Amino acid sequence: MISITSAQLDVWLATLIFPLTRILAMIASSPILGNKQIPARVKLGLSVLIAIIIAPTLGEMPPVAIGSPQGLLIMIQQIIIGVAMGFTMRLIFTAVEMAGDLAGLQMGLGFASFYDPVNATHSPIVAQWLGMVAALAFLAINGHLYMLSALAESFRMLPVGNMIPNQGFHAVASWGGSIFAYALQISLPILAALLITNIALGILTRAAPQLNLFAIGFPITLAIGFLVLMLSMPHFIPMLDRLTQEGLSATLNLVKLPH
Q1: 51-57: long-range pairs with CB below 8 Å, 24+
Q2: What residues contact residue 78 under an 8 Å CB cut-off, 6+ apart?
Q3: How far apart are CA 208 and CA 206, in angstroms?
Q4: How many CA atoms, within 13 angstroms, populate the side-chain half-sphere of residue 96?
Q5: Where are the domains of the chain?
Q6: 121-166 pLDDT, tens per residue?
Q7: What is the pTM of this model?
Q8: CB distance 148 to 22 below 8 Å
Q9: Cα–Cα distance measured from residue 26 to residue 5, given in angstroms and rounded to the nearest whole number
Q10: Residue 128 in contact with residue 109, Cβ under 8 Å?
Q11: 149 HSE (CA, 13 A, CB side)
């Protein structure tokens, strides 16, 4: 007769539940995989599958019961770690959408907005278009697989039972601050071209006051904005690839324990 003690059951549950908590939190807060349009059952099934694959490779779990105060504290720690990792990767798409906001505002498309079901708000059309291109490019460069690989690596760098070190939160804050610089870099070609266009239109209006600036200015800025956007697309994928690699580095720095 096979007998299972409560201590053995607690160990088996902890081996699955503790990693599953971090994986669920990371997938729920990450880009692409955490999209609200993906059913919750798909996210849960994927998280359980990843947990079952990763669990045998992990070391011993803390010898605590799942329902004990110590077990609940460990689960809260895993939620914080997973959410921080997913948030770090989501900042990449925030930079792309911010670049689209800046470009659309300068092109005169600030009023052209559509409902964004992901963020449950209205966003400019240029930002939504760049966001969709970034999502497709992210999948094309296997960014989602790199993200899951970083998640598996995090269990080795920060075992279950440890909390994110202070320098980890500092790394996330530094990475979040650099997002503004990356958004400006992505939108800089359009901003520079439209700045030159507006200066030229100002000189033209000064030389010929009878011209209607609003009648000729809006089509010109719109056409030049789309032209520069089209010409800058070949350079967008390498930029997104670099952002992804730096985001993965920031994610690993988040869970790196001090030596």
Answers
A1: 51/16, 51/19, 51/20, 51/23, 52/16, 54/19, 54/23, 54/152, 54/155, 55/15, 55/16, 55/19, 57/152, 57/155
A2: 18, 19, 21, 22, 25, 160
A3: 6
A4: 27
A5: 6-254
A6: 666 778 888 888 888 888 888 888 888 888 888 888 888 877 777 7
A7: 0.80
A8: no
A9: 32
A10: no
A11: 10
